[in-house]
Specification:
- The protein has 4 helices and 6 strands; from the N terminus they run βααββαββαβ.
- A hairpin with a 3-residue loop joins strand 4 and strand 5.
- Helix 1 packs antiparallel against helix 2 and helix 2 packs antiparallel against helix 3.
Length: about 180
């Protein structure tokens, strides 16, 4: 029996690869890909797995992954991705902080080797799928007009729904794992 947990980050190139694949399969367009790229500028990934390992290092795991993502984007980019067309650059481009938390289930098959009784090398291929997500979109600017603030609040709520739907509909992805670790016990 094998129990593991890992903490890491999602590299920018991985997000680029996911976007290229999904655009290639017409899952979403370039505007949605740009929005996802902008909102995934910072990441933290925590995985917890249980599984089985053979004597020669081959293993099979299933588990849970928590992905916390952060970044920023403009109101214009959110609207363009949502409506699927260019709205022009005549509007004021104000920035929003965007945060997301994805809850994923995953499975992987891999190989783990131990060297010098303490160093662990691991390589694996797997798959993760989003089962739930929570997004936040918050303006980084202030407005004095209450009617305008109401519109901004509505835009933020719409953007949260749009991002959560995108994550839960399209973030089903292959996972490539390469790790080097140190075993304490």
């Amino acid at each position: 029996i094998r129990v593991s947990t890992a903490l890491g980050a999602m590299p920018e190139g991985y997000v680029d690869l996911i976007n290229e694949v999904l655009i290639g399969f017409d899952a979403y367009d370039d505007k949605t890909a740009t929005l996802i790229q902008d909102t995934l500028q910072n990441s933290m990934v925590w995985r917890t797995h249980v599984g089985w390992i053979a004597d020669f290092g081959l293993y099979v795991d299933v588990g849970y992954t928590l992905v916390a993502l952060g970044g920023g984007t403009s109101a214009e980019a959110i609207v363009e991705a949502g409506v699927g067309r260019d709205i022009g650059s005549n509007s004021v481009d104000r920035e929003y902080d965007v945060g997301s938390v994805l809850h994923m289930i995953d499975a992987e098959i891999g190989w783990k080797g131990v060297f010098w009784d303490a160093f662990v090398v691991r390589a694996a291929l797997g798959f993760s799928g989003t089962v739930a997500s929570k997004a936040t979109v918050e303006q980084t600017f202030t407005v004095k007009n209450p009617a305008l603030q109401t519109g901004i609040d509505e835009l933020e709520a719409w953007a949260v729904d749009y991002l959560e739907d995108t994550y839960e509909s399209y973030v089903f992805t292959p996972v490539i794992t390469v790790s080097l670790g140190y075993r304490f016990f």
